Amino acid sequence: MKKKHNRHPFFSYISFIAFVFLNFYIPGISSSRIVSLGSIEIYNTHEWLPTEPTVYFRCQNENKTVLPDVKKKNMVYVFKGIESWQPLTELPEEKCKRCGLYEADTIKEDDVFDEWEFCSSDFSDGKYVRFKGKEFNATFICPKCTDTADSDVTAVAPSKEENNQHVGIIVIVTISLLASAVVICGSYLIYKYWQRRKREQDQARFLKLFEEGDDIEDELDLEHL
Ligand SMILES: *[C@@H]1O[C@H](CO)[C@@H](O)[C@H](O)[C@H]1NC(C)=O
Ligand SMILES: *[C@@H]1O[C@H](CO)[C@@H](O)[C@H](O)[C@H]1NC(C)=O
Question: CA-CA distance, 215 to 81, in Å (whole number)?
């Protein structure tokens, strides 16, 4: 009875480890640098007709993302990152994307609030503030983007990215090794437990046989007498 009680926490422990392992491992593999808009305030509109502006974000060779709520100047719009039109884009690991904030124009070409090189290394603590005087102030959110406080973007970013990749590989290898160790230890413990039980059973059977043997011997002795 006591043994059964002992076995239980061990298996809970194994399943706990497996749970943590899976949770950590799988999101790590599929991690992507998805950028969403955290907040925006525009200081200017470029439309001279008395209509509401249509503000949109776009990266080169990608589709427009219209910001449907952003209609008024000098008003801070805060987003959760899960709005229907989010996220804005996904940044590659080693290159920047040319992106911008624009305003659709009914007659001439669309107006540009700003256009810039958008790099995952620009993010610090998953946040990036883009401010352009008289135009806009926007914060972008990307929890998986790396942070480089000191930035010579073109030169430093690739090596940092590389470093990150190395760290990622080391983490994965370490976790794999730990997981293997846990599995091996677990198997060994189960094997030992099984061995001990078998020995105990054998012993019990042997003792029983022995007792039975004794009984027979006694009987034989009695008959002899
Ligand atoms: C852009 O929009 C078109 C049509 O809505 C869609 O077929 C295409 O997959 C989109 N491309 C990207 C990169 O989202
Ligand atoms: C831009 O917006 C962010 C977030 O709302 C704020 O922290 C920051 O002070 C703003 N910057 C300017 C120059 O208004």
Answer: 82
pLDDT tens for each residue of 176-193: 999 999 999 999 999 999
Return the biggest CA–CA distance within the chain: 128
- pTM (2 d.p.): 0.56
40-50 exposure pattern, b = at least 16 Cβ within 10 A, e = fewer: bbbeebbeeee
Cβ of 63 closer than 6 Å to ligand 1, yes or no, is yes
Rounded Cα distance between 212 and 170, Å, is 62
What is the residue with the minimal CA distance to atom 1 of ligand 2? Answer: 137
Strands laid side by side in the 55-59 sheet: 65-66, 55-59, 97-103, 111-118
DSSP string, 9-55: HHHHHHHHHHHHHHHHHHHHHT---EEEEEEEEES-----SSS---E
Q: How far apart are alpha carbons 169 and 175 in whole angstroms?
A: 10
Tokens of 59: 């990266």
